[in-house]
Amino acid sequence: MNADFVKAVAQLGEEKGIAPDILYGAVEEALVTAYKKNFGSAQNVRVELNKINGDIHVYARKTVVETVTDKAQEISLDHAMLINKKYQVGDVLEEEITPKNFGRIAAQNAKQVIVQRIREAERGMVYEKYASRENDIVSGVIQRVEGHNVYVDLGTAEGILLPNEQIPSETYQFHERIKCYVVEVKKTTKGPQIVLSRTHPGLLKRLFELEVAEIQDGTVEIKSVAREAGMRSKIAVYSSNPNVDPVGACVGQKGMRVRNIVDELRGEKIDIVKYSDVPEEYVSNALSPSKVIAAVSDAPNKICRVIVPDYQLSLAIGKEGQNARLAAKLTGWKIDIKSETQAVEAGELVYDDGSNQTPESAEKSSEEPSEAAVQNTTDGTTDTTADTNEITQDDKGSDKE
Q1: What span, in angstroms and rounded, lies between the C-alpha atoms of 205 and 225?
Q2: Can you tell me the distance from the alpha carbon of 126 to that of 138, in angstroms, rounded to the nearest whole number?
Q3: Fold of 134-196
Q4: Which pTM value belongs to this model?
Q5: Mean pLDDT of 101-118
Q6: Computed from CA positions of residues 147, 152, 153, 158, in that sequence, does the dihedral angle turn out positive or negative?
């Protein structure tokens, strides 16, 4: 080996982003193995590579002892003191034993070892890079689809989108750019395996954190997320600043902020509700866009009983129970929903005048939305702007109350 070899190693390390000392260390380890294989496996040796001129020196390491039992590993104190009188029992003596033709053997092993170590170092760097990004969003390009698995090119690595992490309603096209949530990074013999997700609730949370400046600076806080990927989601937000409307901040001017997130999730409906420490108020907000007449909580059993207008019972429950189910996931409370008439008949709701007729029935014709509007809201096909407007209005209504 010569100075050109040393310079080439340093340049290669710089290009690959690997410290040259790592490559030099790998070469030295390989030369130790090569020496033991060709000149004696029993010896304890150390190889030193001169990082300036490329010279190689091999040293035998032996422990100083009173009585030698293993000539390959030990040296007597008397013999050691002939070399240097400072040696004592227990010291390690190094004696140069570089073979004459060792340079040729070293060159044969160096190339293969360096290539292997570069691969290992690159895999290690990729693993460290993406392991630190677990529970975060990455952007990539769909590289290929094999069976039900989707492979995403992340630039320096490849991520995999497993079937259970894919949104059922989505189709994935070659060269299409998507954002995914990093669920897990695993070490494998072929390099790191990056497991991605499009269904994880964390994806929705991180999208809001990236889109809403008030969340980034801590003015608005995301308290909870409930998601049925591809269909509908609910997110509870809170601000300790009374001058900041957390729902309005997330919706954005003319709904621009939430619309960007809906576009990324390909039309998934999003309800943004205001968080409250009062369970009754929190559950009432979570059932948006349905209005709530009354709510009573049972803290020990974590149950909240809610009464809604007759004509909004189906809206509160949602298609196949989706609205009530998401509200329960969001709040962590079991929710028992009854219509106004059912509550009156059960004696759970009594008016001041003692009348059994619900006030809503008298005002129903003026307040009740058209049948088509109710149906659109119930089956989840309304556009995001309409949803967010309803949420904002309900939230303002609850503030006034």
Answers
A1: 7
A2: 14
A3: OB fold (Dihydrolipoamide Acetyltransferase, E2P) (2.40.50)
A4: 0.67
A5: 72
A6: negative
